[in-house]
Structure formats: structure tokens, C-alpha cells
Design brief:
By secondary structure, the protein is of the alpha/beta class. It contains 19 helices and 8 strands. It has an 8-stranded mixed sheet, sandwiched between helices. The protein is globular. Bound molecules: 2-acetamido-2-deoxy-beta-D-glucopyranose (7 copies). The site of one 2-acetamido-2-deoxy-beta-D-glucopyranose (NAG) has 4 residues, from helix 6.
Length: about 500
């Protein structure tokens, strides 16, 4: 790690911005893939009841390297998983197993927030299993995070293929341990975890009967999705919420530049936006605002609808307010009453660090901005991206074509329509990542379920009877009925196969 400046830049921009390289003063941000946004998670944690009390924690002795037979491949680490037995109908009934795939962070937060499993356990008499992703939370190889992330010899085992192999091994182990070999497994994940769930069903059909992949942008790789997809959806969200709000944001960037270029301009902007630290460069302000709009769009959940909150502030400012005054009113409307707003101090989270590695090695998501959005153009430049990664990870070279080589993605309908089965790709079209999602049915059993007004991973979050809109309740019900359909077909097949075995051949 030979560039302090680079990691400082990252630290400054962390929270949900995952990638930002400033080697050539061109910043680039890949918004984080995560079912939940930081402060929502806090809200929900406080509101949530006693869900996690029903879980028992276990550790599985996991193989470091599933794909080689070198001496170090056989090293092991302790991988965390949790089981909730409360609703399980048991192995004799072949009652199902719902498995949640952890994504780029510690599992702890997901237990209360990802409600799809707990909300529906009784309906299916399901055993619930939540498995943590390697290199996050309490599932760290090499004894400590510091060692695990130290250099290419240790961090090299941190990739999606190893992660889904871990999941397969643990699921096999659990089925055996509880004599549940014939219990169907449904794997569930959101965002990056949703990609893992979909890929798992394709690679390990014997280990999962089906997958629910919520807001999984499996097509945001290589050249499959236009680079502009993400920010064009952010723009559309704001424009649909309010044309004047969209116009104000669009005009604000040149306004920021205009003031920044005057004597004392940065000081004036620092005051106007009540920054926590004086701005050193106008890009700090622009990056903060860009991230705020992107986050509001990605997590534009009912009942608060953050995009409407931002636009409410912008449009609600007194009519004589200038453009940047309106923008600041939007910031305050979104973030609430704070002592300062931009450049807030923050620590790098485990996710910041881990996701940086993942996006710099395998999960290269080319998000760029062209001149058709409400943002300043900022095309994705692969060579700049690669240079930044090589500098940060001393020589580790990103593999931008590996995901499509290993998992596919090009011509997905043509390729999968006669191969795959039992995958639900769910999306909310207001989620900017839906631009890289599967939005059309691929076959009768590989289906796309989307809602016009949904946001990132909304369907797998905890249900709330008093505030969930009808379209969300309906989306979840549709998904549950599809899963029931897979299971009844499986049970019929299972019965037939047992009869053949019993009758002998
Ligand atoms: C990583 O660090 C270990 C221990 O310090 C060292 O033995 C190994 O050669 C390093 N590997 C690389 C690729 O730098
Ligand atoms: C905002 O917070 C400050 C102190 O942190 C308080 O004095 C002020 O009344 C608050 N304003 C509103 C509108 O809540
Ligand atoms: C960052 O971490 C340090 C040390 O753990 C802590 O004292 C500080 O409050 C943290 N800052 C923020 C903004 O969370
Ligand atoms: C946007 O970019 C395209 C292609 O680079 C160019 O043809 C077009 O004139 C640009 N539009 C505006 C409004 O700048
Ligand atoms: C990417 O950036 C490099 C270095 O700044 C530049 O030379 C190159 O033209 C850029 N590529 C594209 C496709 O814009
Ligand atoms: C989506 O929301 C808009 C306004 O926010 C509303 O007019 C529209 O009817 C909604 N569409 C659906 C399908 O619920
Ligand atoms: C459900 O939504 C209502 C209305 O927004 C809220 O007051 C309540 O706390 C929520 N309940 C849970 C368990 O999140």
C-alpha cells in the first residue's frame, strides 16, 4: 500500500462511496452495493424487536482455498453462521431451509433488517440460516483483519468464487448434521449478496433449489449495461419527483465552480454549506452532494422517500433564495438539524476496506456519467481505474472481464433460457442499480419481478404492515407464491423418486 494520499482520499469519501481515485484529479465513485444505508440501519435497529434472540451462533471450520491443493490451501478459518430453529418443520417433513447469503459486511446488521426470512418462516416451516461472507465480521482468515488484508498472499483468497464455495460447504454440512438431505434450500441475497445467490443457483444447483436475488446488478459488468445507467436512474428519480428540483440540481454544479473560482470562494462555500472542515477543493463539495443524491435515490424507501425529502427542501426554500441556498436547504431537509454538514469526520468501515478490494480485483462495475444526466460528466476510464488499483494494492491487477467469463451475463436470455431455472430477480425501478439488473423474464422459472416505485432491496427488508404500500406487499406475495410453486414441484419429484427407489428397478 504505497499511496497514502490515495487511501486518505478514500477515507474522506467513504461512507457509501466506495471507489474514488484521484491520481489525475479525476474522481470516480462506485456507489456501494448494500441492502441498507447506514442511518436507516440505525433507525431500524432501534425499532426492531427481538428477532436476533431466536438465533444461535455457530462457527464452521472452513477451508481457506477450495480450488487448489497447495499446502496453504488446506489452512482453515472459523466462519460464522447463525441458525433460527423456531419455525422449522424438521427433517422428517423435509421442511425447507432458507439461507441468507451475507454480503460485503458483518452479518450482525442483517439479522434484524433482512425480514424476508423471519417474516415468512412460519408460512414455510423453514429453518433459517444466515451465513457471513469470508473476510468480513467474525469470519476472518489468518487470525486477524490486519493479517488477512496485509498483502496479496493473504487477501488473494478474498473473492466471490471462494465465498459461494464456502456457502455450498456450509449448506451441505448443515443438511447432513440435521439429517435434512432432502430438505429444499432456497438461497436469498440482496445487492452483491443477490448476485451471489443467483450465481450460486447456476453453479450449485444440487445445493439450492432456487434463489431470490434482490436488486442484484449482475449485468453491470463489462459492456453489458451502459456506463451511464446508474446516474441516469438517479436523474430520472429526481426529475419525476420534481422538475424544478431537477433543474436546480443541474444548474448548481457550474454555480459551485463559479463561486469556487473567486477569491475566498472556497471559504464562502464552506460557510454557506456549513462544512465540518473548510473545503480544500470544490470537488469535496461536489462529491458529497453527488453521493447524497445517489444515496437518496438508491434507498428511496417508503414511508420517508428521501428523494422527496431532498426535493422538498430545494423546492420549499423561500423564492428569493439563490441556487446554492436551495441546494443547502435540500441538504438540511435530508440530513436534519446538524452542527455541520459537508466533510463530516468519519472512520473507514470494514465494508469500505473490503469492498475497495473486491471492486479493485473482481467486481469491477463500470459506472460513468455522460452528458445526459443532471450531474457533471465523468466517464468511467478503465485505465485510470486500473492504475489506481495497482497503486493501492501493489501490483494486483483488476480483472474487468472475469465476472462475465466465470458467471456469464452477455446475452443472458439466449444463454439461460434453456439452462437455468428457479431464480427470481427482483428490482425496484427507482433503484439506480436496477439499470444493471435482470428486468425481463428469461424463462418460465427464471423470472424478473419489479416494481415501478421500489428502491434497493426493498422486498427483502422487514415488512411493516402499517407503512408498506400495497405494491410492495403484492411484490412480496408474488415472490412467495413462486417459491411455493418451486417447492411443490420439488416435493412431487421427490416423492416420485422415492417410489422408484422403493419399488426397485
Ligand atoms: C506477504 O507477507 C508475508 C509475511 O510478512 C511474506 O512472507 C510474503 O512474502 C508477502 N507476500 C507478498 C506477495 O508480498
Ligand atoms: C437545531 O439544533 C440546535 C442545537 O444543536 C438547536 O439549538 C436548534 O433549536 C435546533 N433547531 C431546530 C429547528 O430543531
Ligand atoms: C473514529 O474512531 C475513533 C477511535 O475508535 C473514535 O474515537 C471516533 O469517535 C470515531 N469517529 C467517528 C466519526 O466515528
Ligand atoms: C453530449 O455528448 C455527445 C457525444 O459525445 C455529443 O454529440 C452531444 O452534443 C453532447 N450534448 C451536449 C448537450 O453537450
Ligand atoms: C483515460 O485516461 C487517460 C489518462 O488520463 C487518457 O489518456 C485516456 O484518453 C482516457 N481514456 C478515455 C477512453 O477517455
Ligand atoms: C409511483 O409513484 C407515483 C408518484 O410518486 C404515482 O403517481 C404512481 O401511481 C406510482 N406507481 C405505481 C405503479 O404505484
Ligand atoms: C412501521 O411503520 C410505522 C410508520 O412509519 C412506524 O411508526 C413503525 O415504527 C414501523 N414499525 C417497525 C417495526 O419498523
Amino acid at each position: 500500500m504505497n499511496s497514502c494520499q490515495l487511501s486518505l482520499q478514500w477515507r474522506l469519501l467513504s461512507v457509501f462511496i466506495i471507489f474514488s481515485i484521484s491520481v489525475t484529479a479525476t474522481n470516480f465513485n462506485i456507489p456501494r452495493l448494500s441492502p441498507i444505508r447506514g442511518s436507516y440501519f440505525m433507525d431500524l435497529q432501534i425499532l426492531s424487536t427481538d428477532v436476533s434472540e431466536d438465533f444461535q451462533t455457530f462457527f464452521y471450520t472452513q477451508t481457506l482455498d477450495h480450488f487448489n491443493y497447495r499446502p496453504e490451501s488446506f489452512s482453515t478459518f472459523q466462519q460464522r453462521y447463525l441458525i433460527n430453529f423456531k419455525s422449522w418443520g424438521g427433517a422428517n417433513a423435509n421442511a425447507p431451509i432458507f439461507a441468507y447469503f451475507g454480503a460485503e459486511g458483518p452479518l450482525d446488521g442483517d439479522l434484524d433488517v433482512i425480514g424476508f426470512l423471519t417474516d415468512n418462516a412460519n408460512r414455510f416451516n423453514a429453518l433459517l440460516v444466515y451465513i457471513e461472507h469470508r473476510y468480513y465480521g467474525k469470519s476472518i482468515p489468518f487470525g486477524s483483519r490486519e493479517e488477512a488484508l496485509k498483502n496479496a498472499s493473504t487477501i488473494g483468497y478474498f473473492n466471490s468464487a471462494q465465498a459461494i464455495a464456502d456457502y455450498a460447504e456450509i449448506l451441505m454440512y448443515i443438511k447432513k448434521k440435521y439429517q435434512a438431505e432432502d430438505s429444499p434450500v432456497i438461497v436469498i441475497g440482496g445487492s452483491y449478496g443477490g448476485m451471489l445467490a443467483a450465481w450460486f443457483r447456476l453453479k450449485y444447483p444440487h445445493a439450492a433449489l432456487g434463489a431470490l436475488a434482490s436488486s442484484a446488478p449482475i449485468l453491470y459488468f463489462d459492456d453489458i449495461t451502459p456506463q451511464n445507467g446508474y446516474y441516469s436512474v438517479v436523474t430520472k428519480d429526481f426529475r419525476e419527483a420534481s422538475e424544478t428540483c431537477y433543474q436546480t440540481i443541474r444548474e448548481s454544479w457550474s454555480e459551485i465552480e463559479k463561486i469556487a473560482s473567486t477569491p475566498n470562494g472556497l471559504l464562502i462555500l464552506s460557510k454557506q454549506f456549513r462544512t465540518c472542515k473548510p473545503l480544500q477543493d470544490s470537488s469535496e463539495l461536489k462529491d458529497n452532494l453527488l453521493s447524497m443524491y445517489a444515496t437518496a435515490a438508491q434507498y428511496n424507501q417508503p414511508p420517508r422517500y428521501p428523494v422527496s425529502m431532498v426535493c422538498g427542501g430545494i423546492d420549499g426554500a423561500p423564492s428569493q433564495t439563490d441556487i446554492l441556498g436551495k441546494i443547502f436547504a435540500g441538504v438540511v431537509a435530508y440530513k436534519g438539524n446538524r452542527s455541520c454538514y459537508i466533510n463530516a469526520p468519519m472512520n473507514e468501515s470494514e465494508t469500505d476496506v473490503g469492498w475497495q478490494w473486491q471492486t479493485c480485483s473482481e467486481i469491477v462495475i463500470p459506472i460513468g456519467i455522460d452528458n445526459t444526466t443532471m450531474f457533471p460528466p465523468n466517464p468511467f476510464n478503465l485505465s485510470v481505474f486500473i492504475d489506481g488499483c495497482e497503486a493501492e494494492y501493489s501490483g494486483v491487477h483488476p480483472r474487468p472481464h472475469w465476472v462475465t467469463t466465470y458467471y456469464g451475463g452477455h446475452d443472458i436470455k439466449l444463454i439461460l433460457q434453456r439452462f437455468a431455472s428457479n431464480i427470481i430477480f427482483s428490482n425496484g425501478l427507482r433503484d439506480p442499480y436496477s439499470s444493471g439488473g435482470v428486468l425481463e423474464d428469461i424463462s418460465d422459472t427464471v423470472v424478473a419481478i419489479h416494481t415501478v416505485n421500489g428502491s434497493h432491496c426493498l422486498d427483502i427488508l422487514r415488512a411493516n404492515r402499517s407503512s408498506d404500500p400495497d405494491w410492495l406487499v403484492k411484490q412480496r406475495e408474488t415472490e412467495l407464491e413462486i417459491i411455493e410453486g418451486w417447492m411443490s414441484m420439488y416435493y412431487a419429484d421427490l416423492k416420485a423418486s422415492k417410489q422408484i427407489q422403493t419399488n426397485g428397478i
